[in-house]
Amino acid sequence: MQQFSLPRPDDWHLHLRDGELLATTVPATAKVFGRAVIMPNLVPPVTTTAQAHDYRQRILAEIPKNTEFEPLMALYLTQQTTVEMIEQAAADDTIIGFKLYPSGATTNSDAGVTDIEALDDVFAAMAKHQVPLLVHGEVTAADIDIFDREKVFIDTKLRPLLARHPKLKLVLEHITTGDAVDFVESMGPSVAATITPQHLLMNRNDLLVGGVRPHNYCLPILKRREHQLRLQQAAVSGSPKFFLGTDSAPHAQSKKEAACGCAGCYSAPAALPLYAEFFDRMQALDKLTDFASHFGADFYGYPRAQERVTLKATEWQVPSTVETAVGPMVPYWANEKLKWQIVD
Ligand SMILES: NC(=O)N[C@@H](CC(=O)O)C(=O)O
Ligand SMILES: [Zn+2]
Ligand SMILES: [Zn+2]
């Protein structure tokens, strides 16, 4: 096969950042994806519908001409989120749901949740109005090993949360372990997960063997190969519970290549070809369409895309850097080759 097309995919987990960087990040995603869930971990965080509306306008201003792109805004759940804020979001078409960051778990999560149980009335309102809860699923306790943080979060926080609120619509974002796959499969159709390209294509050896590779560092951290294999099987399984979410998360080169480097892989410049590379290596290209273009829209209740994008088998090299208004960034997979290329 030299060329194939699929309905325009959606990215169900994306960081665009703000300010001058939007001129780079918005076109990079809008070129390929029809919709994207926009993460609210700005400084300060996007906690209210009013803030989300302003942020959405700044994003819309950067969409290239003749391009249709719909940003779906996620609000940042805090200890101060109220039932009224859930009801307001439920009635607002521009808001897709609330994002739960355990405080301290990841980039710009300081304002995140410290006491999940104390928000039970908020989760009850989310379940009642079917407002999705998007979750960064890691505990942050200092005595829990970083490689165990997802599993411990699932066992001690998520399962009890869903036992208390069985109707809650929940997406476990950027899953990294077989434990997460088991958890999602054990739940009903209102629980799903997104999977990033880096967690499908890499394991922790790619982060640590032969030297530390800061551009492969993201959270939740890459796990051992047996977990990677479980994620790979989930992605090609044809289960509608697993779908595309890049978690493209740009940081300046100087912030990644540092004594204390930031977490996040800027995958947007190569996102769809990266997923195509993975599905091709698995001899499962026929499963890419459901994963990238159907299952996420079905889960969230959006129409499937009508327009199509085409990929051709022409090897290309991901650039070493991307110039932006805030300095160079090193994209994920920089200097490496990819087999599939998007036809403009
Ligand atoms: N994934 C990451 O490593 N980083 C994300 C935050 C997140 O999604 O956890 C970021 O905003 O940089
Ligand atoms: Zn996260
Ligand atoms: Zn993210």
From TrEMBL:
Cofactor section: Zn(2+)
The family database entries (Pfam families) matched by this protein are listed as: Amidohydro_1 (PF01979)
Q: Which UniProt keywords apply?
A: Hydrolase, Metal-binding, Pyrimidine biosynthesis, Zinc
Among the entry's GO cellular component annotations, what is one?
Answer: cytoplasm
- Binding of Zn(2+) 1 occurs at H13, H15, K99, D247
Post-translational modification N6-carboxylysine, affected residues: K99
Q: Which residues form the Amidohydrolase-related domain?
A: 11-302
Q: Which CDD domains match?
A: DHOase
Catalytic EC class: hydrolase
Catalytic residues at: D247
Instruction: List residues binding substrate.
Output: H15, L16, R17, N41, H136, L219, H251, A263
Binding of Zn(2+) 2: at which residues?
K99, H136, H174
**What processes does the entry annotate via GO biological process terms?**
'de novo' pyrimidine nucleobase biosynthetic process; 'de novo' UMP biosynthetic process
Catalytic activities: (S)-dihydroorotate + H2O = N-carbamoyl-L-aspartate + H(+)
> Cofactor: bound how, per the entry note?
Binds 2 Zn(2+) ions per subunit.
**Pathway, per Swiss-Prot/TrEMBL?**
Pyrimidine metabolism; UMP biosynthesis via de novo pathway; (S)-dihydroorotate from bicarbonate: step 3/3
Instruction: State whether it acts alone or in a complex, and with which partners, per the record.
Output: Homodimer.
Under the heading NCBIfam families, the entry gives: pyrC_dimer
Q: What does this protein do?
A: Catalyzes the reversible cyclization of carbamoyl aspartate to dihydroorotate.
**Similarity section:** Belongs to the metallo-dependent hydrolases superfamily. DHOase family. Class II DHOase subfamily.
Protein name listed in UniProt: Dihydroorotase
Source organism per entry reads Pseudidiomarina piscicola
Gene designation per UniProt: pyrC
